[in-house]
Write a structure and sequence with these properties.
This protein is an alpha/beta fold. The protein has seven helices and ten strands. Helix 1 crosses helix 6 and helix 2 packs across helix 3. The longest helix is centred in the N-terminal third of the chain and has 18 residues.
């Protein structure tokens, strides 16, 4: 669920402006999974733009304060959301940890980096939600450490039906600053996509694993 329509439009506009999101229905990208996609998202680019970075940080904080009890800790999902999570934690004056995709292969073998204690409440920051698999693995790791995960806030979601089902099954509220429909609306308004491409863009989101094959 997006936080509000104004934020969704503004964040989508920013992401398109700096090419953090690229829309190419006629020249699809190939994801690491092998899926063909008319959209590519790299939200790490926002960190290089102070105005956009600040706006996203402010909207994350507003989202958390409006929708969750004040957490004890902010957690970021490695690697894309580490910097975003630090910015949010700094703004809120809260401790920060990040969760690796797998335990470190040397030293202490940490999965969670930073100090966290059983019983602490956590809000997780993510940069991008696709199927939700890696994001929910981070939630699982925090729960196994005894933490009370209140929910997750992300910059962008594709809004795949299976992702929504995965978050519901895990009982994790997911809030995003913007989403795929907002991105398409802004793309159409600002000339990044054409009206004739809307049907293709909608078909991809419904069946991303078979689209383009």
């Amino acid at each position: 669920m997006v936080t509000n329509a104004e934020t969704a439009s503004k964040v989508a506009e920013f992401l398109l402006q700096i090419k953090a999101v690229k829309l190419q229905p006629a020249q699809p990208f190939t994801w690491a999974s092998g899926w063909k996609s008319p959209i590519y998202c790299d939200n790490r680019k926002t960190l290089s733009h102070p105005k956009i970075r600040t706006y996203i940080r402010q909207q994350f904080v507003a989202c958390i304060e409006a929708n969750f009890p004040r957490p004890d800790v902010i957690a970021g999902v490695a690697t894309g959301a580490i910097a975003q999570g630090v910015l949010v934690a700094e703004e809120m004056g809260l401790p920060f940890v990040y969760v690796r995709p797998e335990p470190k292969k040397h030293g202490l073998g940490n999965l969670i980096e930073g100090e966290i204690s059983a019983g602490q409440s956590v809000v997780v920051i993510e940069d991008l939600i696709s199927t939700g698999g890696s994001s929910l693995k981070a939630v699982e790791a925090l729960r196994e450490a005894g933490c009370d995960v209140k929910g997750m806030a992300a910059i962008f979601t594709y809004g795949f039906p299976n992702a929504q089902a995965n978050f519901e099954a895990a009982q994790i509220p997911l809030l995003t600053l913007t989403d795929y429909p907002a991105m398409i609306r802004e793309g159409l308004k600002n000339g990044y996509v054409e009206e004739s491409q809307l049907e293709t863009l909608a078909a991809w989101r419904e069946s991303p694993d078979t689209w383009g094959k």
